[in-house]
Structure formats: structure tokens, C-alpha cells
Amino acid sequence: MGRECAICAKHRGVGPLVGPVLFENELVIVTHRPLDQGSPIPGYLFVETRRHTPTVSTLTDPEAAAIGVAVTRAAHALQQELAPEFVFSAITGRSVAHFHQHVFARPVGTPATIPWTDVDSWPESPRINTDELFALSDRLSTHFSPTRP
Fold it and tell me: How far apart are CA 16 and CA 43, in angstroms?
């Protein structure tokens, strides 16, 4: 029997990928990366489909629309709460065959030699602890309110 999808397990609250949930509805879930995955930096989010589906090409139209809104709100939330140099987003899908889009902040002052895809490799990057992660996640979650612009 095959191994269970790590993102499906995460959605049930188990496994190493579990991080604070910022937003969820019937189509998508937005979480902050847990502190023990990569460097403990603020502002690394995942937008995932609730349904187990592997790629952009397998999304339904409602899922695609929900992802678009969630990614836009995630980027806005990071910009407002962290004032980063830039907010990046990428879909790679190589490590887990469950749709997930990365949305992450590049801290102000990050040297140009640090690749855009490797926010973890700058040793002087801001770091957070567990209490700070949950406080940040609470602030970020307010940007997903349906009444937000």
C-alpha cells in the first residue's frame, strides 16, 4: 500500500508539515510553514487545495478562482504585516503530488547574491520563535476576512 499524502495528513493536523492555519474554506487552506521546516523565518505561506489533486491542470474552475483570491490575500497580508522587499510566489509540485503554491516574503536588505528561491540561506534574515509565529499568524489571518479589499 502506498504512503499517505503529506499534505492530506497536514490538513488533518498530523505530520511534520503542520503549521498555523491562517484561512480555510471548502476549497483551499492557507498555512504558515512550521518553524522546523527550513529556517525559522517569518512569512512563508502555503496555499493548498483541500481536495487531493496534483497540479494546476487538474484544478476545477472554482478551485482555481479560490486559489487566486487566497494567493492575492496572502501576498497582501505579507506586504502589510512584514513590509518585505518583495513577495514571491511559486508552484513547483515536485516534492508532494498535492497542489500547493508557495507565497513568501523576501526580507528588506537581503543581499542580491541570495537566490529568490532560497529565502532560508541568508544567515542574517529575520528569525521568529513559536510565540512570534502564532502572533504573526493571527495578524496575517485578519487579511483573509471577506470584508477586506
Answer: 18
Contact 18, 8 (CB under 8 A): no
3-class SS string, 44-109: EEEEEECCCCCCHHHCCHHHHHHHHHHHHHHHHHHHHHHCCCEEEEECCCCCCCCCEEEEEEECCC
Share of the chain above pLDDT 70, in %: 96
* pTM of the predicted model as reported, rounded to 2 decimal places: 0.93
Picking from 138, 137, 130, the residue whose alpha carbon sits closest to that of residue 40 is 130
Distance from C-alpha of 99 to C-alpha of 56, rounded to nearest angstrom: 7
Grid coordinates representing 52? Answer: 487531493
